[in-house]
Amino acid sequence: MAFRCKGGVAWVALLVAVAALASAAQGFPNPFGHEDFTESYYDETCPNAQSIVRSVMERHAAANPRTAPAILRLFFHDCFVNGCDASILLNATDSMESEKDAKPNASVVGYDVIEDIKSELERSCPATVSCADVLALAARDAVAMLGGPSWGVLLGRKDSLAARMDMANKDLPRPTDSLAELIRMFKENNLDERDLTALSGAHTVGRTHSCEHYEERIYSLVGQGGDSIDPSFAAQRRQECEQKHGNATAPFDERTPAKFDNAYYVDLLARRGLLTSDQELYTQGCETGDLVKTYAMNGDVFFADFARAMVKMGNIRPKHWWTPTEVRLKCSVANTHY
Fold it and tell me: Which residues does the record give as heme b binding sites (predicted)?
């Protein structure tokens, strides 16, 4: 049975408004302690923290155009697995599997960039800035470097001592997910349909390097009269995949793949979304479908919603509040193993 949105746009908008009021009243509590996240968290203990993050990001981005999209993706993949606690950065040990080795993280890169930033920070203000906060700041700077919006990053996170490969395999969205599954997964992280649609706009930059991520979409509707994919787009992608034996490189946004803008949503309106999970957003009669149209027509609205959603995602709490934490001295290992 096909998924149908419930309640209509007005009802969803009401829920969004109620959630916004609740967030405003409660603030963004720090899941690792009694302090609230705050933009000024390091003003006294490491006043140059944000400028250090930015300068190292700029250096890496100048050397490798993939840096900024990679860091944005790295932050997302960290936050969706037991909250934004830098667990994705931990290497495997004799007693712990690494999230880096989970299937959804097979093509994730950028770990060296975060480690480089952390090394600079350790020289300036030792044992002060958490790897989780480094990743949050670097993701913000990555978007700005690509031409996207900026925002004030709320700081004060701590780093977990353990990774959860099992959760990474289970809790990260997949390229073939339906809209219903995406909504469910985001809801589990207290993110609504507006957050889902806005955060998916991160696919306005970056590329996928394997046809396995989208081959179901470009082949499944061949000869079946399907109307969820533009036939010329499907034919082009099939040809590339066959020529490259399944290893074709394809941009998520074919219009401006190196620029953070709203072209991704224009692609969706044209039925030229690369992944099934991308195109599913443009489902008629759903809040996500209406938002796709809004963002395609108005990039300023998309930028504002994306910035708000990034702050909201950056404050996802670990599912287990008793998780032991620290400020790691090296992002890839807990301090007890350093």
Answer: 203
> What pLDDT is recorded for position 322?
61
Q: Go through 260-299 and write b for each residue having 16 or more CB atoms within 10 A of its CB, e for each that does not.
A: bbbbbbbbbeebbbbbbbbbbbbbeebbbbbbbebbbeeb
Per-residue CA distances from 248 to 94, 138, 141, 330 (Å): 36, 29, 29, 35
Query: 191-315 domain in CATH 1.10.420.10?
Result: yes
**Percent of the chain scoring above 90 in pLDDT:** 79
Q: What is the mean pLDDT of residues 160-177?
A: 93
Q: Enter the tokens of residue 91.
A: 């290497």
Report d(CA 35, CA 330) in Å as an integer.
24
Q: Token pair for residue 321?
A: 């509040």
Kindly calculate the radius of gyration of the chain based on its CA atoms and give it in whole angstroms: 20
User: Identical fold at 48-172+317-326 and 191-315?
Assistant: no
> Residues with catalytic annotation?
77
Look-up: residue for tokens 């938002």?
291
Query: Are 111 and 89 contacting, i.e. CB atoms less than 8 angstroms apart?
Result: yes
- Cite the annotated binding site for heme b by residue number: 203
pLDDT value for 199: 98
How would CATH label the architecture of 48-172+317-326?
A: Orthogonal Bundle (1.10)
Is pLDDT of 7 > 60?
no
Question: Which parts are annotated binding residues?
Answer: 78, 81, 83, 85, 87, 99, 173, 203-204, 253, 256, 261
- Compute the average pLDDT of residues 10-28: 37
Going by C-alpha positions, the residue among 152, 175, 123, 141 that lies closest to residue 330 is 123
Residues 69, 291, 250, CA angle at the centre, nearest 5°? 35
Kindly state the average pLDDT of the residues 75-84: 96
Q: So where are the chain's domains?
A: 48-172+317-326, 191-315
